[in-house]
Design a protein that fits this description.
Blueprint (H helix, E strand, L loop, with lengths): L4 H15 L3 E5 L15 H5 L4 E3 L4 H12 L4 E5 L10 H8 L2 H4 L9 E6 L14 H5 L5 E3 L4 H13 L4 E6 L23 E4 L4 E5 L3 H15 L4 E5 L2 E3 L3 H11 L2 E8 L4 H13 L8 E5 L10 H4 L3 H12 L2
Parallel strand pairs: 1-2, 1-3, 3-4, 4-6, 5-6, 8-9, 8-11, 11-12
Antiparallel strand pairs: 5-10, 7-9
Helix pairs in contact: 1-7, 3-4, 8-12, 9-10
């Protein structure tokens, strides 16, 4: 039976709790209510309040507690209720969670997963529609994952929970319940740090992740129906580490590159990917590599949010400009 991305995450958590008694889940309303989006719904009832529980409203306390649990043998999976609330816990993430394994020279691995609903498109208030790739991808010692499909969400989260390194697992909230996919009921893993070629092509490489893959896929579909061009689409899946080989190989084949992301442009992940392409595939380029991103502004409130989101038509226009260069 096809399931949503939200249900796939719930399945992965359910299996992890069943198979590994060291796994615990907690966060603001993550226990009894099952989280504000109901991602953890039913897990407290099934596994009890000692393993799935609510916390005070303190993101710093949530992450700090997880670190202490992890170095004492548990595998915490913590939920930050909304993306913008992460900033209150960022100190613990950047100065402790990401560094402790190195600081202890490998004696204290920190197998913590921090789950965060991210991105716009839900007409949320301030601090409810943030894109955190730049902040988190910049911190050494963290793995940063953003799934775009139910299948990937389950496999990547399973791999994250089994990892001995801290993983930030960003969940595009706009597509929690948008679309369904056949997903195996049993446990499986998807390698963290490995991008996925969604569709092969010869004329241009487009890279995206998370919710933005929906618009990318639709834009490419329309262009290929209107023309003779073929376009390669890559789902990055992991912001850190980046799968450099897959991107470079693709660009050397197509000669053109576009990265699309909702996060702000300046110092964003698109800049890093453009640098990667320029440094490793410059002589293969037939057009300047481009990035299509959100604006360098605070995410607008509901009435103006659509101006900051990247539409199918914007993606099509950018692709055609590159193809005809």
């Amino acid at each position: 039976m096809p399931i949503t991305l939200l249900e796939a995450i719930n399945q992965a958590l359910d299996i992890a709790l069943e198979k590994d008694e060291s796994v615990v889940i907690f966060g603001e309303d993550a226990g009894f209510e099952g989280g504000v989006f109901r991602v953890t719904q039913g897990l407290q009832k099934k596994y009890g309040k000692d393993r799935v529980f609510d916390t005070p409203i303190s993101e710093s306390g949530i992450v700090g507690s997880a670190i202490g649990m992890a170095i004492n043998g548990l595998k915490p999976v913590v939920e930050i209720q909304f993306d913008g609330f992460l900033f209150s816990g960022f100190n613990q993430i950047a100065t402790q969670l990401a560094r402790l394994r190195n600081r202890s020279r490998g004696n204290y691995p920190v197998p913590v997963v921090v789950r965060i609903p991210v991105g716009g498109g839900i007409k949320g208030l301030e601090h409810h529609s943030e894109n955190l790739e730049t902040f988190l991808g910049h911190v050494p010692g963290l793995k940063v994952v953003i799934p775009s499909t139910p299948y990937d969400a389950k496999g990547l989260l399973t791999a994250a929970i089994k990892s001995n390194d801290p993983v930030i697992f960003m969940e595009p909230k706009r597509i929690y319940r948008s679309g369904r996919q056949e997903v195996p009921e049993q446990e499986y893993e998807i390698e963290i740090g490995k991008a996925k070629i969604i569709k092969s092509g010869n004329d241009l490489t487009v890279v995206g992740w998370g919710a933005k893959l929906r618009e990318i896929n639709e834009a490419v579909k329309e262009i290929e129906q209107e023309s003779s061009y073929t376009i390669e689409i890559i789902d990055l899946r992991t912001i850190s580490p980046i799968d450099k080989q897959t991107i470079i190989k693709s660009v050397k084949k197509t000669g053109r590159f576009l990265v699309v992301h909702e996060a702000a442009k300046t110092y964003g992940p698109g800049a890093e990917l453009l640098a990667l392409v320029n440094e490793n595939a410059f002589l293969h380029l037939e057009a300047p590599p481009k990035r299509l991103t959100g604006f360098d502004i605070i995410v607008p409130l509901a009435k103006g949010e659509h101006h900051n989101l990247i539409s199918i038509n914007k993606i099509k226009a950018e692709i055609y400009q590159l193809l005809k260069y």
